[in-house]
Amino acid sequence: MTDLAALARRQYASLDPLTVRVRTHQRYSARPDDVDAAVRAAIGLTPADDVLDVGCGTGAFLRTLAEEGHLGQLIGLDASPAAVSALAAAPGVTAIEGDAQRLPFDDATADVVTLRHMLYHVPDPLAALREARRVLRPGGRLAAVVNVDTTLPTLMGLLATAVATHGFARPRPDGEVGRGPRMASVHDGNLPTLVQQIFGYAETHRHDNELVFPAPEPMVEYAVSCLVGWGVADDEPRRDDVIATLTEKAAALFADGGPVRDPKGYVIVTAVAATA
Ligand SMILES: C[S@@+](CC[C@H](N)C(=O)[O-])C[C@H]1O[C@@H](n2cnc3c(N)ncnc32)[C@H](O)[C@@H]1O
User: Fold this and answer.
1) Ligand 1 site, CB within 6 A
2) Residue 55 scores a pLDDT above 80
3) Which candidate, 113, 54, 104, 110, places its Cα nearest to that of 80?
4) Ligand 1 midpoint to CA 20 (Å)
5) Distance from Cα 186 to the centre of ligand 1, integer Å
């Protein structure tokens, strides 16, 4: 297993940190932040579509579709056993453990493949896109979602300072020499090109927003939920020191009473599998 795959395993051994982040976006976005609705609109999802959600996480996207009475097949695939067992109990959804780079499905078996906020965890993102293309039926649609490169600069700065203060190396983009976990840099700047390489073209839909933190606590909670991905494991002896620094630095950001506004954004890159 590569470093990046092993790191993703640790990050999603429990879904609690992911749930903290999802809840923070729901509660504190300046404008409604509905990625599910945006994806559905971008690909024109219809009730009859057979949908494969790769890296499905909590599976909330597929659960909602099932509850609405979606007619087509709904399959969630994830590398995390915790994600698969959480989704296994959901009626109308099939949950499968697997790797985006080697999908356990026949060619041309899905109408829609979604890769939502997951490609930056995959050691070979092009392989994942190639697999998505393979399992799509002719005319089937892809939606890949990633953050814009500059998302949440204040939160990321807080994390960078706190981990560096205690001797951890920040994640490093591909190609950069350094210590610390490798961060696959799939973002708005390069995803359209990757999709184009596999599908021949790509359409980009950008969504900008802000997190508006009324107090330091939710900011610290979000940062703590990211720590495993920043190289600070749950059983790391210096973890409490890192959290103490996060708490102190976050409090300083509210010296004037707040709120603290942190710009964020994501792109949905769509493509259609050629019909021939
Ligand atoms: C940030 S979460 C996103 C979850 C969900 N798609 C969402 O948007 O809320 C990333 C998910 O991708 C999964 N993942 C990471 N690498 C993977 C891989 N190689 N194959 C399949 N799933 C993977 C993780 O286990 C995790 O559930």
Assistant:
1) 8, 12, 18, 22, 54-57, 78-80, 83, 99-101, 116-118, 121-122
2) yes
3) 54
4) 15
5) 14
How many whole angstroms from 12 Cα to the centroid of ligand 1?
8
Distance (Å, whole) CA 79 – CA 73? 20
Residue ranges of domains in the chain, CATH in brackets? 3-152+182-212+264-272 (3.40.50.150)
pLDDT, tens only, 83-111: 999 999 899 999 999 999 999 999 999 99
pTM comes to 0.95
275: pLDDT strictly greater than 80: no
Task: Note the pLDDT tens digit of each residue in 179-196.
Answer: 566 555 899 999 999 999
